[in-house]
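your task:
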Amino acid sequence: MAGGDTEDVARARPLFEALADTIVHVGPRGSGIRLKLVNNYMGMVGMVMTAEALMFAAKLGLDRATVVKVLSTTAAGRGQLNTNYPHKVLAGDVTPDFPLRMGYKDIHLAMNLAASVGAPLGLGGYAREMFALAKSWGREEQDCTAMLLLLEDLAQVPR
């Protein structure tokens, strides 16, 4: 992830090639470190999410090997950016394959179950709040990937 003028990135390319297999010019100066931080943010939050899910499964008495085998084949385990997002919201399609209201129902049920077994799901609490907002923002019948649009609305990201 290299940021800078096209000429500067081209001049530094031999050095980059010695350090990395893939070099992507991501924009003006400073864009490389910004994208690196976005990537690492996603990775570290995903790390906590994965740990929470595995802990939750353990608290429910589920076999870890089976849980890992099953979750690694689902959209949740393979990552939304690799599965649903490219075909839905990033393609401009928010028709519901799985609407936000159903996501709210499921996260709410999971949080109640987690509370009953003493499984602390911090990210789940935040997710439930975000799914609950979908109704008041008129997005509850949109696909779950429309969570991106909801968060962009909240952050006032121009479209």
Notes: The longest helix spans residues 31-59. The radius of gyration is 19 Å.
